[in-house]
Specification:
Blueprint: H1 2-9, E1 13-16, E2 19-20, E3 26-30, E4 33-38, E5 45-53, E6 57-67, H2 93-112, E7 118-119, E8 133-141, E9 146-150, H3 170-173, H4 176-184, E10 194-199, E11 204-209, H5 216-226, E12 231-236, E13 244-245, E14 254-258, E15 263-267, H6 277-291, E16 298-302, H7 310-314, E17 319-324, H8 327-339, E18 345-349, E19 368-371, H9 379-384, E20 392-397, H10 400-413, E21 418-424, E22 434-439
Parallel strand pairs: 4-6, 7-21, 11-12, 16-17, 16-19, 17-18, 19-20
Antiparallel strand pairs: 1-5, 2-3, 3-4, 5-6, 8-9, 8-10, 10-11, 12-13, 14-15, 20-22, 21-22
Length: 440
């Protein structure tokens, strides 16, 4: 709190913003030091307060825009600036996407010394109400006399006091105020640290993490709220294996459709899925377009999860193989294959963080490969792959820095060429860059 008092008491300083950093902050040079200023855009004149000073650089936040950029827009969310869920809502949506494309291309040049032969058109879908997966913090604040539900504040670890969210799917984003009141009615309202939310095509699932047992009255309160709404509560008294439905009645299945490929993907509330289903459908289309699967092709999908790409790819390939480190996800991927009546797809458990111990990695003949790794990238996997039999490799990335690093290995050591690369707006109004690259 002392830092906040110091910031309020400090005098704002002027700054000229030269450019935009990768994470979306404005960059200024002041007294020979680089300053990253949150809320500022390239070409603007602003007044700001320092939030942190370090040896080589400093950080600050905009308190007044003296000369705005033509690309600046009014944030749609009333909580923007307080809530840390979004960081680029003050920048025009199309420009956000162009900024992300510039970040990807700069990373490829800087880390891998690479230029794609072709820059793919950016993929974009709905920019509001798009987020179907999220972890929301919960906290009872005695000073406010209420339970808070939401993302963390921008400049602290406190939970933002919000009543709605413009980027969450409307089934949740427009009911945060109701959820706050509901949780406050429970006897364990002080022992609920978080909600895990997942919205399928027909129903929203809300997993309540609780550190003390619920009473019968608590269960009745939740059941009454659930009744008549497209929402289902799940309870999590312990680890992930403790998650169970509040109700004993049959659960409505959580799923999403990939209509262009006649695939339905079922999932459980805590499973990994892409947060943006509409954009994900476009991404699957692009992946399959780049792979150009035919009746004689075998697809090897690494980090396959529930089979998001594998199942759709099996519609066109002779065979599709998915490898994934999670036993639970592999079991559900296998069930998804059966439910979609796909007999030419196989899923196996393979710890791709330790690929040298994974016999399955090179145990299948394949000519086309898909990589969709976590933020840490796929360097260890790439070094174990036999690239000689590979015609095409598509890499889907949630971190352009590790994609650029791995691209350098594929091109400079593996002998492949970077045929195409582009971005997609999986997380509008944030600086998160989701990208895709084709190697041949």
């Amino acid at each position: 709190m002392s830092n906040r008092r110091e910031q309020r008491a400090a005098t704002p300083l002027p700054a000229s913003i030269a450019s935009l950093a990768h994470e979306g902050r404005g960059i200024a040079r002041i007294n020979g030091k680089t300053v990253f200023i949150d809320g500022a855009l390239a070409g603007e004149q602003v007044r700001f307060l320092y939030t942190r000073k370090r040896g080589q650089f400093a950080e600050g936040r905009t308190v007044e825009v003296l000369q705005p950029s033509a690309l600046r827009v009014a944030p749609r969310c009333p909580h923007y600036g307080l809530c840390g869920g979004c960081s680029l809502m003050h920048l025009d949506g199309d420009e956000q996407l162009l900024h992300k494309q510039a970040v990807l291309l700069e990373q490829l040049r800087h880390s891998g010394g690479l230029e794609p032969e072709r820059v793919l058109p950016p993929l974009s879908a709905a920019r509001w109400g798009y987020r179907r997966k999220a972890r929301l913090g919960v906290k009872y604040v005695a000073g406010k006399g209420k339970v808070l539900v939401g993302f963390r504040e921008k400049y602290s670890s406190f939970i933002a006091d919000i009543d709605s969210c413009e980027v969450l799917h409307p089934l949740l984003g427009r009911t945060i105020d109701q959820l706050k009141e509901l949780l406050h009615k429970l006897s364990v309202y002080r022992q609920i640290p978080q909600l895990e939310v997942a919205v399928s095509d027909t129903v929203a699932a809300v997993v309540i993490r609780h550190l003390a047992p619920l009473t019968d009255a608590d269960r009745s309160t939740l059941a009454d709220y659930e009744a008549g709404r497209p929402l289902r509560f799940y309870l999590q008294p312990g680890g992930l294996d403790s998650v169970h439905s509040l109700s004993e009645r049959p659960e409505p299945g959580l799923y999403y459709r990939l209509d262009n490929h006649d695939v339905t993907v079922e999932f459980l509330p805590m499973d990994f899925t892409q947060v943006n289903f509409e954009l994900n459908a476009l991404l699957v289309d692009r992946v399959l377009e780049l792979l150009d699967l035919g009746a004689t092709d075998t697809l090897l999908d690494l980090f396959c999860g529930l089979g998001n790409f594998t199942l759709a790819g099996a519609r066109y390939a002779q065979r599709a193989i998915g490898l994934e480190g999670s036993d639970n996800l592999v079991r559900r991927a296998q069930a998804n294959a059966r439910n979609n009546r796909l007999a030419n797809v196989d899923f196996s458990v393979c710890d791709l963080s330790k690929p040298d111990r994974c016999a399955e990695l090179n145990g299948y003949e394949h000519n086309k490969v898909l990589l969709d790794p976590p933020r840490s990238g796929a360097r260890e996997v790439i070094e174990q792959l036999d690239l000689r039999q590979m015609e095409k490799l598509v890499y889907v990335s949630c971190n352009p820095a590790t994609l650029a690093r791995d691209a350098g290995i594929l091109v400079n050591k593996g002998g492949l060429k970077l045929a195409a690369a582009g971005v997609m707006d999986m997380f509008p109004h944030t600086a998160h860059v989701e990208s895709i690259a084709l190697f041949e």
